[in-house]
């Protein structure tokens, strides 16, 4: 931004700062400071709902003698996290040229299990095997992040029971269905001492003793005793905790989130630039518009009342009382009657 | 079925019914006969045109709302929400040439977002919008770079 830095707060002129406090394979905790809450929230929202991943969308069950109903299992299949690395090379099924689905827009997975022992048999996500042509060998494989590398439990089978189904996994975003969410949770926190009073804490006798302090409380200056409320204060430091469901590494979720936001903006800029030529649909200032406030649609001054003062003028003198529709269905509409 | 029959007969009466005609268009009964007449009239000529317009409408996601002037305009974004709206509003408001900027989602069940921009003389609302979009993009670039830096620093710190 090339604005005069004098206009902005000193801190903001320095530009945003990112500090990572903890990171491992499932989560990244970082602090975004010198940014605005609007932007921080955009980032949170975009990471939560608009990063493309892959999830099972169609399930064809050919054999199910388990105790669970078909639709129940189908729903569980959808929620299994699948590895979304390299999902960029996959097309959205609705944008693909194929009829239904193909290797460019989907990954097929097979689950076939039968309990042949004499003990109940659990069926895990690891038993779900991709088959057929795939765009790469990683995308669409079930996430196995537990110690035993079993993945999530799908169902259990009694001796003699069998399950056989075929799944089609497609690319999508969590805005459409939460199964496409890359993050298990995103922690978003600011102002741990509640100095801005954005939170109204419920308490029995004293909020300070009853509410545990936030992890970030020691990062920020606690309020002084009897400190007056600062009416100009705005939130400035945001603490994110991005936890992955396993389909994308946590740091990738953050970078992808920013990327998605950028793509959104780039798309709009592109569209605005295209419209600059003025194709009549857009950029026309004198296009169709609703009637001006204060004049009737037919050019008459709204409706008149039997009281003689022009109707749209109240006895208070101002031009009150007109509706944007001009004549109303009630009373004497002038245009049609005369 | 009997309902459909009465509907068809109604428009004749409704035409002479002054009171109904003066109701807002949104409250007027739809007359199906009118529509079928329209279709008959521009049967083939209309078809090609309609296809073109439809295609264009599909891609067009920003629209200038009626009643806009160069320095005070309202835009309608399709398929956008608070994610973009609030950040954009904030950044546009930071522009010293902008007098006023606000956004609204008129109804939660319509995927539409409206942005109102009023500028001082010397720039137009469209320019302010475009600058706003670019500024958010620059902000994204900066945060993205800073995050990558921070990650590298963190990894270096953890391994040493």
Q: What does this 3D model show about the protein?
A:
The complex is a heterodimer of chains A (338) and B (160). In chain A, 18% of the residues lie in helices and 22% in strands. Chain A is of the alpha+beta class and 338 residues long. Chain A folds into 2 domains: 139 residues, RNA polymerase, RBP11-like subunit (Gyrase A, domain 2); 128 residues, RNA Polymerase Alpha Subunit, Chain A, domain 2, CATH 2.170.120. In chain A, the strands form 3 sheets. In chain A, strands 1-2-10-9 form a 4-stranded antiparallel beta sheet. Chain A has a 4-stranded antiparallel beta sheet with strand order 3-8-4-6, covered by helices on one side. In chain A, strand 1 and strand 2 form a beta hairpin. Chain B is α+β, with helices and mostly antiparallel strands. Chain B has a domain of 73 residues: 2-Layer Sandwich (Gyrase A, domain 2), CATH 3.30.1360. Helix content of chain B is 59%, strand content 16%. Chain B has a 4-stranded antiparallel beta sheet with strand order 1-2-4-3, with helices on one face. In chain B, helix 5 packs across helix 6. The longest helix of chain B is centred in the C-terminal third of the chain and has 35 residues. The radius of gyration of chain B is 25 Å and the shape is elongated. The N terminus of chain B is likely disordered. Chains A and B meet through strand 1, strand 2, helix 2 and helix 5 of A and helix 2, strand 1, helix 5 and helix 6 of B.
Q: Nutshell version of this structure?
A:
Chain A has 338 residues and is an alpha+beta fold. Chain A has six helices and ten strands, in the order αββαβαββββββαβαα.
Question: What characteristics describe this protein?
Answer:
heterodimer, A: alpha+beta, Gyrase A, domain 2, four-stranded antiparallel β-sheet, 6 helices, globular, B: 160 residues, alpha+beta, 59% helix, 16% strand, elongated, RNA_pol_Rpb11_13-16kDa_CS (chain B)
């Amino acid at each position: 931004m090339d604005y005069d830095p004098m206009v902005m707060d000193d801190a903001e002129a320095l530009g945003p700062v990112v500090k990572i406090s903890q990171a491992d394979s499932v989560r990244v905790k970082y602090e975004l400071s010198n940014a605005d809450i609007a932007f921080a929230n955009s980032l949170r929202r975009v990471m939560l709902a608009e990063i493309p991943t892959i999830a099972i969308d169609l399930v064809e069950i050919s054999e199910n003698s388990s105790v669970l109903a078909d639709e129940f299992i189908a729903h569980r299949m959808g929620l299994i996290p699948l590895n979304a690395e390299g999902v960029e090379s996959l097309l959205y099924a609705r944008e693909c040229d194929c009829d239904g689905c193909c290797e460019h827009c989907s990954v097929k997975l097979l689950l076939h299990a039968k309990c042949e022992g004499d003990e109940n048999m659990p069926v895990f996500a690891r038993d779900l095997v991709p088959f057929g042509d795939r765009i790469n060998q990683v995308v669409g494989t079930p996430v196995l992040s537990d110690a035993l590398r079993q993945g999530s439990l799908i169902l259990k089978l009694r001796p003699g029971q069998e399950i056989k189904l075929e799944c089609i996994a497609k690319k999508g975003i969590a805005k459409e269905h939460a199964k496409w969410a890359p993050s298990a949770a995103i922690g978003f926190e600011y102002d741990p001492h509640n100095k801005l009073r954005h939170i109204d804490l419920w308490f029995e006798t004293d909020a300070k003793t009853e509410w545990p302090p936030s992890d970030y409380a020691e990062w920020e200056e606690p309020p002084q005793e009897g400190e007056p409320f600062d009416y100009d204060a705005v939130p400035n430091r945001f603490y994110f905790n991005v936890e992955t469901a396993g389909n994308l590494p946590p740091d990738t979720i953050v970078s992808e989130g920013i990327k998605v936001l950028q793509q959104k903006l780039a798309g709009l800029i592109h569209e605005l630039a295209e419209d600059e030529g003025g194709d009549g649909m857009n950029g026309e200032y004198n296009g169709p518009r609703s009637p001006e406030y204060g004049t009737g649609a037919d050019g008459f001054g709204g409706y008149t009342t039997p009281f003689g003062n022009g109707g749209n003028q109240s006895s208070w003198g101002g031009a009150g009382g007109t509706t944007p529709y001009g004549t109303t269905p009630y009373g004497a509409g002038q245009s049609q009657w005369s | 079925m009997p309902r459909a029959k009465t509907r068809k007969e109604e428009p004749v009466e409704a035409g002479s019914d002054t009171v109904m005609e003066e109701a807002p268009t949104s409250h007027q009964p739809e007359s199906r006969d009118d529509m079928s007449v329209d279709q008959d009239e521009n049967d083939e000529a209309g078809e090609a045109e309609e296809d073109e317009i439809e295609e264009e409408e599909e891609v067009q996601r920003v629209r200038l709302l009626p009643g806009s002037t160069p320095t005070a305009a309202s835009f309608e974004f399709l398929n956008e929400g608070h994610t973009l709206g609030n950040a954009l509003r904030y950044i546009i408001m930071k522009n010293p040439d902008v007098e006023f900027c606000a956004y609204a989602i008129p109804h939660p069940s319509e995927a539409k977002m409206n942005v109102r921009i009023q500028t001082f003389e010397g720039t137009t609302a469209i320019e302010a919008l475009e600058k706003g979009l670019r500024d958010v993009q620059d902000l994204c670039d900066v945060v993205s770079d800073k995050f990558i830096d921070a990650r590298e620093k963190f990894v270096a710190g953890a391994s040493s």
